[in-house]
Specification:
The complex is a heterodimer of chains A (112) and B (112). Chain A is 0% helix and 52% strand. Chain A is mainly β and 112 residues long. In chain B, strands 2, 4, 5, 9, 10 and 11 form a 6-stranded mixed beta sheet that branches. In chain B, strands 1-3-8-7-6 form a 5-stranded antiparallel beta sheet, with no helix packed on it. The chains are: A mainly beta (112), B mainly beta (112).
Chain lengths: 112, 112
């Protein structure tokens, strides 16, 4: 199993550009989530999904969209990038909320 | 706002000593998990303790949970240089909102 994969590993955007961060898992996990990690802030939940076709907002959802058309994929879309979205983004998946979360390696995003 | 807050923010100890870090949270929980993050990497699950458990062991790790004080502690015994990492607690609220929220982390440095 590849586990949780994220692409790209690193991305530079200009303010106003849009892009999609990809996340995929091959463990047939129902629960998937996106976090951003900023220095001194820990991980903050952006969006999460409890299964295909079901998504909900986390703590910091503004400026981001998600969809879950399949169990395997959970892309995160930045609609119009802003410097405040410069961060490291982690995707995670698990069988359920009470189970071990498996994290991807992260995407480092720089918005100029 | 963060559900969990780790204490201390940073901790440096000599190799072989024990390391203790604490997590406090705000709302009633179903479970509490501890994760480790090596620099620049994704998080790795260490241990999960349920709200009806008071103590749990895994190798050199010992976790306690005091629901009356809304706090947990992680003890790493006989520390090794490889334990150098950031440690995070994560909680899921028992309000049924399907969210897992992380604390701000403790940065542990083991001095050889």
């Amino acid at each position: 199993n590849a586990g949780v994969t994220q692409t790209p590993k690193f991305q530079v955007l200009k303010t106003g550009q849009s892009m999609t961060l990809q996340c995929a898992q091959d463990m047939n996990h129902e629960y998937m989530s996106w976090y951003r990690q900023d220095p001194g802030m820990g991980l903050r939940l952006i969006h999460y999904s409890v299964g295909a076709g079901i998504t909900d907002q986390g703590e910091v959802p503004n400026g981001y969209n998600v969809s879950r058309s399949t169990t395997e994929d959970f892309p995160l879309r930045l609609l119009s990038a802003a410097p405040s979205q410069t961060s490291v983004y982690f995707c995670a998946s698990s069988k359920g909320l009470e189970e071990t979360q498996y994290f991807g390696p992260g995407t480092r995003l720089l918005v100029l | 706002s963060q559900q969990g807050e780790e204490d201390p923010q940073a901790l440096s100890i000599q190799e072989g000593e024990n390391a203790t870090m604490n997590c406090s949270y705000k709302t009633s929980i179903n479970n509490l998990q501890w994760y480790r993050q090596n620099s620049g990497r994704g998080l790795v699950h260490l241990i999960l303790i349920r709200s009806n458990e008071r103590e749990k062991h895994s190798g050199r790790l010992r976790v306690t949970l005091d629901t009356s004080k809304k706090s947990s502690s992680l003890l790493i015994t006989a520390s090794r240089a490889a334990d150098t990492a950031s440690y995070f607690c994560a909680t899921d609220s028992n309000f049924g909102n399907e969210k897992l929220t992380f604390g701000t982390g403790t940065r542990l440095t083991i001095i050889p």
